[in-house]
Amino acid sequence: MSKNIVVIGAGVAGLTTALLLSRIPGYKIVVAAKHMAGDYDIEYASPWAGANYMPVSVHDTDAAEWDRKTWVPLEDLARNHPEAGVHFQECEIHSRSKDVGSATATWFAELLSPNPWFKDVVPNFRSLPKNTLNPGIDSATVFTSVCINTAIYLPWLVSQCLKNGVVFKRAVFNHILDATSVLPQVHLVVNCTGLMASTLGGVEDKSVIPARGQIVIVRNDAGKMLDISGTDDGEDEACYVMTRAAGGGTILGGSYQKGNWESQPDPNLAVRIMKRAVEMCPSLTGGKGIEHLDIIRHGVGLRPVREGGTRIAKERMGDVWIVHNYGAGGAGYQSSYGCAQAAVDLVQDAFSRAKL
C-alpha cells in the first residue's frame, strides 16, 4: 500500500522536498499550498530571490553540509539542463576592512574568508591580486557559482514533480493537522511553510522572523556576480549584483531588515541600491549614472529567517508523523537539495519506525 504524504508549501523548500520524495517508489505525494509558482505575494519568498550559491554557513555545521550537498545538483542543472533556468556565473566577493564587526560582515563572515570551507566545492576558487581591486577594497576572492532564474526554475521544479505523479492543490490551513484532510488517509505531513511557520497552528515557531530584502531588477547585463562586505548606508543594507539565466534580468540588491514586514518598495532605498550597484559594477551602465539603468521592476521579498537556523526535525502529532523543513532564511536555494534530502531521510525513518 502506498504511503500518503502531504507537503505544505510550494516554495523552493517544499518543491525540492516533494521532488526528492517523488523519486521513491511507494509514496503518493500531494503538495498543498496557499501560494504556487507564478504567484508574487509577500508571504511567498521564493519568487523574489536572486537566487545563487554563495555559502555563508559556518564550517562543520549541518548548514554547511546542506550547502555542500546542494552544489552538485545545481552544477548538474547548469551544465546539463538549461531548461531549468540555472547558469554558471563568475562570482566576486569584495571585502573592506572597515566593515569588520558590522551586521553584514558578520553574516557574511565565511563568504568573506580567504580560506572558506567551500573553496574545495565550487570550481576555480582563488584570491584576486590587491593591485586589481577598486579603491577601498582590501581583499577579494572569486569562484564559479550559479545564478538561478526563479521565474523559470520554480515552474521547472513543478513540472518535474508532475512528471513523477505529484498532485498540486491550493489550500490554506489554520493548523498543521488540517493537512490530513487533503486525502482520505494521510500518513505523514511535511511542513515547508517558511515564514508562515510562525503562525501555523501546531507549529507557531516564533523564532521565525522576516528579513526584508529589497531589489531592483534591470535589463542591464553585469557580466558577473558581485557582493561586498558592507555599505556606508547602514548595517541592514547590502550591495550585490547578479544576472539571472535565460534573459531573467540583473538583480540589484539589497537589504537585510530583520523584523520588517513592509511589502512595498522604499523609493529612497531603491535609489541607494542602484547607486551602490553602479559604483561597484560600472559595466552596468558603461561608467554612467543610475539614469542609464533600464528598470524592469522593483521587488520586496521576506527571507524566512529562523533564529538558530533551519529546522529539519520530525515529531509525532496525534496519529500522524510531521517532518519540518523551514527557516532557511537567505539560503533557501543554495541549501535546498541538502535540506530536502535531510527531510526525506526523516520521512523514511518515520515510516521505518511505524513498522516496528
Automatic annotation (TrEMBL):
| Sorted UniProt keywords | FAD, Flavoprotein, Oxidoreductase, Peroxisome
Which top-level enzyme class is recorded in the Swiss-Prot or TrEMBL entry? oxidoreductase
On the tree of life, the source organism's domain of life is Eukaryota
Give the residues the record marks as binding D-dopa: G330
Q: Which PROSITE patterns match?
A: DAO (PS00677)
EC number(s) for this protein? 1.4.3.3
Predominant location category: other
**Required cofactor(s):** FAD
Flavoprotein as UniProt keyword: yes
A single GO BP: D-amino acid catabolic process
Q: Name one Pfam family in it.
A: DAO
Instruction: Give a GO molecular function annotation for the protein.
Output: FAD binding
Q: Which residues are FAD-binding? A: T193
| Segments forming domain FAD dependent oxidoreductase | 5-346
What GO CC annotations are associated with the protein?
Answer: peroxisomal matrix
Name the chemical reaction catalysed here. Answer: a D-alpha-amino acid + O2 + H2O = a 2-oxocarboxylate + H2O2 + NH4(+)
Q: Which family does it belong to?
A: Belongs to the DAMOX/DASOX family.
Its protein name is: D-amino-acid oxidase
What organism does the record attribute this protein to? Aspergillus wentii DTO 134E9
